[in-house]
Structures are given as C-alpha cells and as structure tokens.
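Problem: given the chain below (422 residues), write out its structure.
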Amino acid sequence: MLFENNLPFALKLDEEDELKSYRSAFHIPRSESGEEILYFCGNSLGLQPRKTINYIVQELTDWANLGVEGHFHAKNPWMPYHELLTPSLMQLVGAEENEVVAMNTLSVNLHLMMVSFYQPTSSRYKILIESDAFPSDLYAVESQAKFHGFNPNDAILKIKPRLGEELIREEDIAELLEKEGSKIALVFLGGVNYYTGQVFNIRTITQMAHEQGCKVGFDLAHAAGNIPLNLHDDGPDFAAWCSYKYLNGGPGCLAACFVHNRHAHNEELKRFAGWWGHNKETRFNMRHDFDPIAGAEGWQLSNPPIYSLAAMKASLSIFDEVGMINLRRKSEKLTGYFEYLLDDIADNRIRVITPSNPDQRGCQLSIQVLNADKTLHKTLTEMGVITDWREPDVIRAAPVPLYNSFEDVFKFVELLRKILST
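Solution.
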C-alpha cells in the first residue's frame, strides 16, 4: 500500500479500519487537561477494557453474598473458574485443550517448566538463550544452572547478533545448534525479543533443536496477543506468557503456560507439585499420593486468584470477538504506516532496529537513539506520549491494534519530528 504523510490520510485509514470501534472498549488515559494521551506502551502494560470492572464486581458480589459457597454456586463458580479461560487461551496460542492453563506469574511458570524440561546430565547440560533476553529470563536460567551444580559461565550459551548488527540471524542459531547441540539440554528463547521486537520462528527453531535432542521452550510475554501463534503444530515442549501486556489483564495479572500434549501423560517427568495439579476427582480426599492431572493443568500449584482470572476473562473475550488474524492484519498496516512515517523524518539521530519484514516483527518498533540520548524520550513524555525507554539506547513504541489508531501514529511522529527539529 502507498502511504501518505498527512493527517487526512491517517484519518482516512482510521475511517476504513474495520476494528476502529474497539478503541472505545478501552479506557484511554488522559492528561491533566483532559486530553487523551498518545499511549504506545501496550507492550509493557495494556490498557484496561471498560468491561473489566463488571467482571471483577461480579466476583466481589458473589463473595459478599455467598462466602465460601461461591466456589460452587457463584455465577461463575470459583472452583473451576480457570477452565472458563481455556477455550480463549487455546485459540490465542494455537493449542489443544489439555495444553494450556492460566496459573501463577510468568517467572514462576518458567521455573516450574524448567524443573521438568531442563534435566541436565554431565555431558548435556547447556542452555541456549538470547544474549539480550529479558533480564528475568537470564536470571532464571542462570539460577537453574547453579541449582544443578553448573557454572553459568559454562552452562549458558548466549546467541548474539553479528558484530555491527542488532538482530539474531536464524542461520547463526542453526550453526550454533549444529556445533553445540549434543551438549545443549534446553533451547529457551523469546517468541518476540523484548528489546528489538524481533520475532523468532518457533517452528523452525523447535525442529532444529529437536533434531539435536534438545528440549525447547519459549517466553511468549511479548508474543501472546501480539502475533498469531500455533504452538501445538510448531511443537515446542513448553511456553509461558504473562497477561498484562498485550492481553490487558492488568498490572501483575495472572500468567499462563503451554505444555505440549506429548508430555500430557508422562508421570515420570520431574515437577514441583501442588494440590491444584492433583486429580480433580480426589483432590479433596487429602490423603492420596500426588496424582497429576493429565496435561498442562498438572503443573498447577495453588488455587488461582479469582479477580485476576476475571480481569483476564474480560480481555480475552475481546480477543475471542476480534480474532488474531484480524488483529494481525491491522497490526501490519498500522506498524507499516508507523515505519513509513519514521523513515520520512530522515534524521540520523534515530533509526528503527526492528526488522522491516512484517513476518519478523510484531507491533512494537524499537527506535534506537544516537548517543543514548534519553532526553528525547523524556521530552516525548512531557508532550503527552507514553512509550518506554530500555537501556542502553532504545525507545520502544507499540501501536496496539485493539486501541491505537492511525491518527495516534501520525501525531506521535509529528511530535517526534518537532523535537528533533528544535
């Protein structure tokens, strides 16, 4: 599509947008003067759906009126409440029913998954991860290596971009797997890199790693709700994601995970167990040995927080209506327009380091700032634009297709142009 750099064109794109009505389904933050701010931070914390309050109030009302009986007699009974989210999660990540569950928080889930799928031996003990993975992921794998008695400096293999480049090449992952595969116990990557916005090919990487005998897991914090996923067919052993970014569950909201169903009935897998992962039929008999539920639910530890589940359910209902295919179609157009406008600034103090190929990125564009000049980000914030700064030198800006408009994108770039011209 041929884009134009003017406001009437942006407004025309908004008028043609089949998803434009969903913007009004969210609370858009406003400045002190009452004007809507330009919110480009859904990759860090998604906006609140207007319906969320009703979902949470329902559970507060049932608690007030029913007390403990709410577990079985609430409008949405609390005992199986997490199961109400399963169909939405299946659709969201391309999984089968027994492969997904909402539980815990992201880093907790990653540790639980690595208890089962990082089983090092004296000869196969390494973990392959991005050199610039999200810090929590690095902390997790380093601590797992230490827990098993290995030196992280030896056990952690960090795949890096080539000198002078920002992105990791798939052929370099293949080469490293070919060279070190017999020593790698776990390949653990982000579905979308938090810093650059680069999308990794889950299917290809999984196949390459499995050919070398490695287990494979993905952190999908920046992928779930951002890009279409097909986890069952792509075949990783596990994945986990939070729900407060693109999934709009609210700050610190519950997370979810995926365990491929080829592991569903493997009771020999080591795991940390809790009563909520026990056979539902005998869970309350209290004196049975641990009998894990087949599938992802068998990794649950405790009964989940209902208010977080309610917030997740509210947002996921919107994803059910819209569908990831439609969201992705708008996202590619919205981000394409964003990139076009940024390129049109033609200022060597900034450059987009996110891949230009839409297949290799989600909706986040990472704008690298010359000399790590954070004042550019600070000035944007003062002018009513919410993005985030990631050290050492990147402004992350994510036009989220559920609630960002083409007009938002145009106004953002015009403000950026104005700052750079002064």
